[in-house]
């Protein structure tokens, strides 16, 4: 009901200013988009579903608990599962952070469909990778996608097209999230997270 009320008000405000609005349901989200382009950019409003709000809240809480950048974990989760707790990959990875059973077990998760257990295990794994690779984000992402063994074998990002595309997708979301909140990213490429008071974060200190 509140979505319908807001939609009515929104249409009233933009009437005569833009082209007709289109309403699209994307998963548990409702997207309202105008087809009029301002400067070549499509403007839209997105309402997240209740489940997605819960996932984001859990991610933020767990990141603060373990001292890991919220922006990084959010970007990984977005690419891995689109924040869907019930997501299952062809290889058998499950949940928000798309963990395999072995990795989940190593970091204390028993129920991979439980949002908090899944996110906690994923964040602990990411913190391990950040520590191992001295905060190098590209190596952390490569290891999360292709495995630590591959990164160690090649002494850097493996020459796998899938892994390179994965890194690009995550970094695009990471950068976009930062720009929305005015974060300063040196050279546009936050390639290394600094450890400050036990917390892995970007130079600007934004979660």
Summarize this structure briefly:
By secondary structure, this protein is of the alpha+beta class.
Structural overview:
It is a single chain. The protein is built from 8 helices and 5 strands. It has helices at 2-14, 50-66, 70-81, 101-106, 115-132, 137-146, 148-154, 161-180; strands at residues 21-26, 29-38, 41-47, 194-196, 199-201. The protein has a 3-stranded antiparallel sheet, with helices on one face. It has a two-stranded antiparallel sheet with strand order 4-5. The model is unreliable at 7-48, 179-190 and 203-207 (pLDDT under 50).
Strand content: 5-15%
Helical amount: 40-55%
Total beta-strand segments? 5
Radius of gyration: 19 Å
- Please report the first level of CATH classification, the CATH class of the largest domain: Mainly Alpha
Number of helices: 8
Assembly of the depicted chains? single chain
Terminus-to-terminus distance = 33 Å
Number of domains: 2
Order of SSEs: HEEEHHHHHHHEE
- Based on CA inertia axes, which overall geometry fits? globular
How is the biggest beta sheet arranged?
3 strands, antiparallel
Taking pLDDT < 50 over at least 5 consecutive residues as the criterion, the unreliable ranges are 7-48, 179-190, 203-207
**Average residue pLDDT:** 75
Q: Could you name the CATH topology of the largest domain? A: Lysozyme
Keywords:
Lysozyme; three-stranded antiparallel beta sheet; alpha+beta; 50% helix; two-stranded antiparallel sheet; 207 residues; 5 strands; 2 domains
